């Protein structure tokens, strides 16, 4: 089995791969999920799976940075549209609906960029 189908199979089984602080592959799975056959497969593909876990960790860090940046920027507008888009993003996240999440994220980013910088009053000029 190649590494990509294996990673997809693990996700379908709700097996979470991560990198431990010591740089080792950490596997979390629901009780009874890791059969002897699956453990042997994990061991055989450990290095490839570790690379995938590192890539996932880097992608999650970049994603989190983007969300924080959007939160900081869109939070300054204080309008209802921004609040609605954040609500849609949160709902999709908790429903684990990737398609809806990506759509909501794209809408939030486009809206945030279209409203940034927020309007502000100009300082009074002295004459």
Strand order, main sheet: write it out.
1-2
Uncertain parts: none
Distance between the termini: 77 Å
* CATH topology grouping of the largest domain: Arc Repressor Mutant, subunit A
SS-based class: mainly alpha
What summary fits the major beta sheet? 2 strands, antiparallel
Radius of gyration: 21 Å
Task: Work out the number of β strands.
Answer: 2
- Average pLDDT figure: 78
> Which second-level CATH architecture of the largest domain applies?
Orthogonal Bundle
Listing every helix as H and every strand as E from the N terminus to the C terminus, the arrangement reads HEEHHHH
Strands, helices and their partners?
Layout: H1 3-12, E1 16-19, E2 25-28, H2 36-44, H3 46-74, H4 80-95, H5 98-114
Features:
single chain; mainly alpha; 2 domains; 5 helices; 127 residues; Arc Repressor Mutant, subunit A; 64% helix
Describe this structure in words.
- The structure is a single chain.
- With 127 residues, the chain is mostly helical.
- It folds into two domains: 60 residues, Arc Repressor Mutant, subunit A, CATH 1.10.10; 44 residues.
- 64% of the residues lie in helices and 6% in strands.
- It has a two-stranded antiparallel ribbon with strand order 1-2.
In brief:
The protein has 127 residues and is mostly helical. The protein has helices spanning 3-12, 36-44, 46-74, 80-95, 98-114; strands at residues 16-19, 25-28.
